[in-house]
């Protein structure tokens, strides 16, 4: 296909989507013509709400990936097509099953390939993170979405679309937290969050050209209106955090609170996330509901893993751990010692919080053998001839539209592997946790090649910098999952109160440090 025709095709795509779709009849089926054909089918199908056109574009990209050398551009375009197809599908959408669910899952898989590709450009990685953040919002995974938008901005500071998405959803959350202060007071220091929103409005207004480049001219008017509203927020500057660990927590967004105030960091108490209230069960007798003890343990595990990670994540810094063992050098740039055992332990501890979350929600939903479940078993089981079947308690809660449970269920798929569907885009978190628990994780500070296969299949080799990033992402995943667990309980409690007209007597759950005289 001549460059003139390609230019004409893309010009029509921007000016007249219907004409662009008709122009595609002039194209052949050569490999060079298939890519622009697929891109235009998807973009113009989205503009005209044409499900068939988008599906045809997705199918072409699937074929291209099989016959051409796969690259981040193809994976990005396929993910974009799948994401769009999930939106233009007229069937009743479900966040937990059906064609849209499968398209969203595969879109996350392919965006994940772009994000992990060392050869992908910063622009493409940043766009992939922005799009995967928008995808996550569609299944109530708002904490991870905000993390994606922030990461997209770090990679490409001029990404006004990522800044706008974070700004817009943070403004929405701030409104919710103000309206329901008692329910969400542990989620966030709202004034600090609004300062972030104000700063983001400056980023967006300075990068309208990128917004137009990434999202088109039609998006500009709504973006500009949101920026005008955000710019009116009164400044609330934050002081510099002197404590290096606290500064690390703030910079990486690892507090169990969306945003923390100066006073919270100064006091050293900033992991404030908790359940606002729970209706006690007859089985609790005179004790407080067990869910409070469970939350306390999970928060403590998370805080410990985060602190261990901070103590060992920089190779040349001092740590509180004593290196007392001698080691044989295996002559493959592997690193051994307490520091690296601490690093793999931190990833293992924080990932295991997901199993504790599964037990907590199973207990909360009064499921049988709740104490024996884990994050892979709690959702349901595969039955011969029937495929995967949800447990009845889980199914009922998902059908009620519980957003926290929907988010956790989608995480389950993203960290799992399925014979028909393949690996979820976050499956590595589970793989390395299992290796360090049951076999041997060997870290390397210079992996000059990928030829580190294990003759016994008992040893997994991984670059230390890659493992550090994985552990940081595992911390963020566990943090998000804890928020979703609280979301799930808040929603379920509100349903209980709306369905139950019996009188409820309130009892305060006091602060542990206060009771202990601290």
Per the principal axes of the C-alpha atoms, what is the gross shape?
globular
Based on helices, strands and strand pairing, what is the structural class?
Answer: mainly alpha
The parts where pLDDT drops under 50 for at least 5 residues are none
Strands of the biggest beta sheet: in what spatial order? 1-6-7
Mean pLDDT: 91
| Spatial gap, N to C terminus | 75 Å
Strand fraction: under 5%
Order of helices and strands: HHHHHHHHHHHHHHHHEHEEHHEEHEEHH
In short:
By secondary structure, this protein is mostly helical.
Task: Based on the model shown, name its key terms.
two-stranded antiparallel ribbon, mainly alpha, 518 residues, three-stranded mixed sheet
Architecture overview:
The protein is mainly α and 518 residues long. It has a domain of 230 residues. Helices cover 61% and strands 5% of the residues. The chain has 22 helices and 7 strands. The strands form 3 sheets. Strands 1-6-7 form a 3-stranded mixed beta sheet. Strand 4 and strand 5 form a beta hairpin. Helix 1 packs parallel to helix 3 and helix 9 runs antiparallel to helix 11. The longest helix has 36 residues. The N and C termini lie far apart (75 Å). The model has no long low-confidence stretch (mean pLDDT 91).
């Amino acid at each position: 296909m001549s460059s003139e025709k390609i230019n004409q095709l893309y010009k029509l795509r921007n000016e007249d989507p219907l004409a662009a779709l008709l122009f595609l009849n002039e194209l052949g089926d050569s490999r060079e013509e298939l890519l622009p054909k697929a891109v235009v089918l998807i973009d113009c199908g989205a503009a005209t709400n044409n499900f068939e056109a988008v599906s045809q574009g997705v199918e072409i990209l699937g074929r291209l990936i099989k016959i051409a050398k796969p690259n981040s551009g193809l994976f990005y375009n396929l993910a974009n097509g799948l994401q769009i197809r999930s939106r233009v599908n007229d069937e009743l959408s479900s966040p937990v099953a059906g064609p849209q669910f499968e398209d969203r899952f595969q879109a996350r898989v392919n965006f994940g390939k772009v994000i992990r590709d060392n050869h992908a450009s910063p622009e493409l990685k940043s766009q992939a993170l922005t799009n995967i953040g928008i995808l996550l919002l569609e299944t109530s995974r708002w904490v991870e979405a905000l993390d994606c938008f922030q990461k997209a901005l770090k990679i490409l500071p001029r990404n006004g679309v990522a800044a706008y998405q974070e700004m817009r959803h943070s403004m929405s959350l701030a409104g919710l937290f103000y309206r329901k202060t008692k329910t969400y007071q542990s989620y966030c220091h709202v004034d600090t969050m609004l300062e972030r929103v104000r700063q983001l409005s400056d980023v967006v207004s300075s990068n309208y050209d990128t917004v137009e480049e990434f999202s088109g001219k039609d998006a500009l008017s709504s973006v500009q209106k949101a920026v005008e509203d955000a710019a009116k927020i009164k400044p609330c500057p934050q002081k510099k955090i002197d404590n290096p660990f606290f500064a690390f927590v703030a910079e990486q967004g690892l507090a169990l609170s969306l945003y923390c105030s100066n006073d919270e960091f100064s006091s050293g108490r900033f992991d404030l996330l908790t359940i606002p209230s729970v209706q006690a069960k007859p089985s609790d007798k005179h004790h407080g509901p067990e869910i409070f003890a469970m939350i306390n343990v999970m928060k403590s595990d998370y805080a410990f893993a985060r602190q261990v990670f901070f103590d060992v994540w920089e190779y040349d810094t001092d740590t509180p751990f004593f290196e007392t063992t001698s080691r044989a050098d295996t002559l493959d740039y592997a690193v051994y010692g307490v520091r690296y055992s601490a690093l793999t332990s931190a990833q293992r501890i924080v990932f295991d919080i997901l199993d504790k979350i599964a037990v907590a929600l199973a207990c909360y939903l009064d499921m049988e053998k709740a104490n024996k479940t884990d994050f892979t078993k709690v959702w349901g089981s595969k039955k011969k001839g029937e495929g995967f079947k949800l447990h009845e308690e889980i199914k009922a809660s998902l059908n009620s539209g519980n957003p926290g449970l929907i988010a956790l269920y989608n995480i389950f798929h993203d960290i799992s592997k399925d014979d028909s569907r393949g690996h979820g885009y976050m499956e590595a978190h589970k793989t390395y946790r299992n290796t360090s628990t049951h076999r041997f994780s060997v870290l390397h500070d210079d992996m000059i090649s990928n030829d580190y296969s294990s003759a016994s299949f008992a040893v997994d080799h991984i670059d230390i910098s890659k493992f550090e990033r994985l552990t940081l992402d595992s911390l963020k995943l566990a943090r998000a999952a804890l928020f979703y667990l609280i979301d799930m309980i808040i929603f379920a409690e509100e349903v209980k109160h709306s369905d139950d007209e019996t009188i409820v007597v309130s009892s305060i759950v006091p602060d542990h440090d206060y009771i202990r005289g601290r």
